[in-house]
Design brief:
The complex is a heterodimer of chains A (about 700) and B (about 150).
Chain A (H helix, E strand, L loop, with lengths): L3 H27 L4 H21 L2 H18 L7 H24 L8 H12 L3 H17 L15 H12 L3 E9 L6 H15 E7 L2 H5 L6 E8 L3 H10 L3 E9 L2 H21 L3 H18 L11 H27 L6 H25 E3 L1 H4 L2 H12 L3 E6 L4 E3 H22 L3 H6 L6 E10 L2 E8 L6 H11 L4 H6 L2 H6 L22 H10 L3 E7 L3 E9 L4 E9 L2 E6 L3 E8 L4 E3 L2 E6 L2 E7 H4 L10 E9 L2 E7 L1 E9 L14 E6 L5 E5 L1 H4 L1
Parallel strand pairs in A: 6-8, 13-22, 17-19
Antiparallel strand pairs in A: 1-3, 1-4, 2-3, 5-7, 8-9, 9-11, 10-11, 12-13, 12-20, 14-18, 15-16, 16-17, 18-19, 21-22
Chain B lengths: L1 H8 L2 E8 L2 E6 L3 E6 L13 E7 L2 E7 H4 L12 E5 L7 E5 L1 E8 L4 E3 L12 E7 L2 E6 L1 H5 L4
Parallel strand pairs in B: 2-11, 5-7
Antiparallel strand pairs in B: 1-2, 1-8, 3-6, 4-5, 6-7, 9-10, 10-11
Classes of the chains: A alpha+beta (about 700), B mainly beta (about 150).
Amino acid sequence: MDVSQYLEIFIDETKEHLQSLNEQLLIIEKEPENTDTINEIFRAAHSLKGMAGTMGYKRMQKLTHQMENVFSEIRNGKMKVDANMVDILFQCLDALEEYLDNIQESADEGTNDNEPILKELEAILNGNSAPKQEEKKEEKQEEKKSEEGSSEVPYKNFVFTDFEKHAVEEALEKRMHVHTITVYVDESCLLKAARAFLVFKSIENIGEIIKSEPSAQDIEDEKFEQNFSICVVSSESLDKVIGVIKNVSEIKDAVGEEITSLDAIKCAKDAEEKKEETHTNKETDNKKDAKAVKQPAKGKTNSKPVVNRSVRVDIEKLDVLMNLVSELIIAKNGLISTSSDAGNSGSQAFNEQIEYLERVTTNLHESVMKVRMMPIETVTNKFPRMIRDLSKKLDKKMELYITGEDTELDRTVIDEIGDPLMHLLRNSADHGLESAEVRAQRGKPEVGTVRLDAYQDGNNVVIEVSDDGNGIDVEAVRNSAINKGTITEEQAESMTDKEVIDLLFKPSFSTAKKVTDISGRGVGLDVVKTKIETLGGDIEVKTELGEGSTFIIRLPLTLAIIQALMVELGDEKYAISLGNIQTIEDIPVSDIKYVQTKEVIHLRGVVIPLIRLDTVLDIENTSEEENLTVVIVKKGEKLAGLVVDRLIGQQEIVIKSLGKYISNSSKIISGATILGNGEVALILDANALL
Amino acid sequence: MDDLKQTSTDTKQYIVIALGVEQYGIDISYVDNIVKLQKITRVPKSQPYFYGVINLRGEIVPVMSLRRKFKLEDDEFTDKSRIIIIKPEHQEPIGIIVDIVKEVVTLSEDDVEKINADLKDELSKYIIGVGKSEKGLISLLNITTVISDEQ
């Protein structure tokens, strides 16, 4: 059967399940008794198995099947979670990820059987006492027969509401047969809902369905695994009904029994309660366990989402949409400038329409941007697992704290930012945090702290990766740079600490005293820096020897369209992103003061350095005015005043790249934009000027 | 007959441009478009041979000066000046300013005399050969080196 069209969905969903498994395992490592989590894990593993089976990935299915067995033992309280088990389960996840990578590349799961892991899982399962083992085997056999996740036949779990009970009662009075049947759909069946529909349809010819589990709506929405159960009132016998069901193609099996008295179903309900009771008796904590029994059912409705009304869209389609919006905005700007060129003769109605158009395009742009935005969580959620592994590998105790996971970034940025962040976190874990002995000597807590904080700052998103470790040893960097010949001794002496730290971002520069497989090969920070710069962002470091260091990444919120202030210098026009601008000031020339021969102004108690844009941009300065127009821009804490000739006004601009040919080594030009009259204006990057 | 076929497969069309008195040929397969001079926005701190960028149907295209690259006298813009938009495969377009666009010629391989790069003459790397047509000699530009960043 051709399943290629489902491959993409399969890959996406498998990723989600793996991620959830990773997260839940981390939780369970800390709280081995957390029943919610165990149930969650069990469900994820079970869905994974089902999906892999449907797609015909046998190895993947086998592995998940074993995992599921382990989880089911835990869930049934027959096993306890221990560190060894968690390690092996993590290995399983890695193996599954490997399968997934292979599938993503070649639509094939590869040939790695992962025998050792399977054996270990087996060992865990066999680690139970003998009788349990037998039980286990039995269960397995049964599973093989029905290829079902659990040994219970679902129809026995039917719980009837009063109304349904009444219906059964009525039917029995009329001497009709009441059957409860569980229908198993073939595992390779792709249109389960359609099959279920056919089953329903054919039963309706010979009887009436008074109840189904899951509900008819859920079955229609394909919200069931490989089976569903129904209660049928019919004049036909059980065998006949089952025969009708089995006639539907791709139905693997149907089993059921007849309900002959109302007591039977009452019993079913009572049995449920009894089960609960016995459970509660077993454990001491009554309330807790009752909750635990109810939770799975509740969890099921939760995890089968509260009808998540979303569509998966190819990012390329969004790119096309974004480009179209960009063109629309350029066209709108053109319209505005032609109407103003034509003088003020344009009728008021025309201007109103233009304003209306402007509102619509701005909203349209915002909506498209929002569609493209994703919470940074999609990247950061794999980090706790990574830190856990690093902690074991490096034998350092550490804890990762993440804040601001809901900060949103453009999808393209999200896709690219993962690796740099991972690198920085590894650096912090490996080089940043000291060994336990050193930490003890310095009076720091035994467990090191690595933080990842994300937040929005104007038109930027800031991500900080920090640790409370050793910090950067500036002298060590200086010496290392001299030894490597990166700088001469004289240069080293004249360099500020900040300049020395910036050396770390130079290609092939690593100060790690020993190379580990985690970091320290010298292909690190420069790659991080390049990547972040290609995303239009920048990175800086704050460090205090012995206290720790912080890497601050600043990324633009949007990549394509921004609100900008247009300014004029000589006869050239430039755009400055509104997100960077704090205020605009009119400063008399006489107010300019000098600090170390640099021009500054004193504004409301703050000393702000002046930047003469005409000098920076090689424009001949002709104006000799008494007042300067100064645009105050900020980057983090830093402020600067940009001196411009004239202000044109605020405009929505579409950012275009200058391309690869023109070298832009100073980085002060971050791109270009097309104005309403077709002219090109350059965009100044205030971050680079500061 | 066979001869004709042979030559026809080995011919190439070139756009003939002039910088001062000298004629240059650009392989027509690289040429995307020829546009009249328009306002060029200067890009500060760029390489000296770049004039800046233009808006070509909504795309930002950098424009360079062949004269500056070849270390000739600076351009004089006339109404005959043109920007030739070059679009190499798998690369972004780039514009080059020329004094005048003359004609399109078809040269067979026999009409082209290959020249070897002369290490002493740094400009020779920009030329892949000299074409002989009725209207005189045409230096055929090596577009790849012309638009590459090296000086």
